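Question thread 4412

I'm putting together a teaching handout and wanted feedback from people who do this every day. The idea is simple: show students a protein as raw sequence, then show them the structure tokens that encode its fold, then repeat with a second protein so they can compare. Below is the first pair exactly as I plan to print it.
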Amino acid sequence: MRLASCRLGAGEYPLGGDEKMDVVKVIAPGWVHRSPSFDKASLLEYNTIVNEKGFAVNCVTPTYNAIIVAAARDNDDTDRSNDSIDSDSSRGPTPLGRKKPDLTAPGVGIVSTDVGGGWDIGSGTSYAAPHVAGALILAWDYGIWDPALLKAWLINSAEDRGAPGWDVEWGWGYIDLDAAYDQIDYTLVGSVSAYDKWYSGTMNAGEKVTIAWKKHSGYPLTDLDLYLYDSNGNLLDSSEFTRDNVEQVKLDSGSNVSVYIRVHCWSCSLPNQTQTFGLAAGSPLQPVSAPWWWGGSTPAKTSLADRKKPRSEGKIFALYNNYPNPCNPETWIPYQLAADAHVVIHIYNAKGQLVRTLDLGNQRAGAHITKDKAAYWDGKNDEGSFVASGVYFYTLEVNGKEIGTRKMIMSK
């Protein structure tokens, strides 16, 4: 394992591609001067992010695994409450909408060694990135080595600043090593190869769960999604970014809430069809089988009569991923209703043509997750013929209003 903390300026490039070697890279997105030493092709090879002085990421590069660091002004005191983002710190996202920067660290008036000897005071992301590199070294000393897990851990424990979740200035948040130390034992490395990986535990209001995974050279980015449910199957939060290898969910309210975490593998092109990820949380989580309301094993000491009792009323209208997916030919489409409503599922082919309408009529409020509650599709169109293999999209319509759209694959 190697750690490269580096800045991007004229003629300065990181060591090695982060998709091609076992290396954690912490990068300060510095200003790039248009000079003969600037080699865009080399930067693309090194998989790094380049920022112009115009404060926007303007070089489309395949950086996924590096940790991009923004700079904050800490006012040279120990009070974090008055810290602010530095006006010279580059802003995200990338031109293609990817979420960079990842983290923010102090980067104004930092005392450091000088290349000519002695000490100097400097400012910028070049002085912010070493804070994150130092945090990683401390984690290594503790025994955490997995690069994706290290990234998930620092992001999950970061203090959320600016807009909730990721934002263009602070990224996922302001690095907080006190919180990181408190959460270091709530980290784990997992893998998912077919659809879902489940975890359970308890969470308190404000706690987050974050996953990060590695993009492998020569393969498309694996698309993982992250979901947070309560013990009755009500969806509390979800994260479904398609262009990034970080997902995060958060519990907004409650104390000691029993929860399930679902890591869903939407697509994976790796040879073994298995994606390893790092998971970080604010409380302990344990791997479990799919919960009974998802079609898994029935929990112990729960009678059939109890399982048939109406579940607690859902708080939101939501459409979930169908299962199985890919399907051949039948599949179930789970959804959730915040109130009694008339429900219709529309299924479209890849050209946007309507192939099937499932009018479910009036449905009761709650989580319609299990096979006896979810919408059922037999793989046929409205004419009664089986549809061809391919990509299909389905929408949830509640009382005439479209709630959401998801994708499924028919594979025969």
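The second pair follows. I'd like the answer to focus on this one:
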Amino acid sequence: MQTLPGIMWRTRERHLQLTLDGARARDGHVAASRDLRARARDIGEAEVAAVLRSNRYPDQVPLTPFHFGPGLLGKGLAPRASSWSVFIASNVLIDCESLYYLERHEYPVHRQLHTFVGATFAGLVTVGLLLALRAILPKLRAWFDRQPPIMRAEATPLGIAVGAMIDALSHPVLDGLMHPDIEPFQPWSAANPLRGLVALGALHAGCLVAGLVGATLLLARSRR
């Protein structure tokens, strides 16, 4: 069984290798751009070299479980108006983009769906699909309608919309803080002013704390 830290590290290994591969492609059919080489340097040559020496590049799904913490906080703050399960569904849909490019060994792995425009589109697609599913599965809808308000919000139109949009707005921010290949303000700007504003360790700790606070709030509200 793979541990969460192991999955996160192996995914980062794969990302680093793709970055270096792109920076090395100078003389072949694909020429690396100056911006691409700058991104490789931004990650750090020493870290890339360490990954190369390890000779380990397994295929991994680019799971981002740290995103779930802020989503759980949103559920804790607005338990009757937000769906955490839909937040997760929207998150997975967006990261399917990274999985696709990781499997194809193509850099960058964070592209259109990791911009605010693209993430919003993915959120709207998630809302549309789940509302359609809600309409064609009346028994499931009826089951949710019989649940307590906090649980019922997981499948209400409002909860679905709020959960998906929380992910759409937070996903480019959280990934923009740590990944060098994200351009969250496309198509208007290729800049990423979010990069490096928060240290990686602090970002992960913040997401975990957000999740713990959200879970505590939900537990307290459910006991009322």
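Top answer:
Good format. For the second protein you could add a caption like this: The chain has a mean pLDDT of 79. The chain has two domains: 1-60, 62-222.
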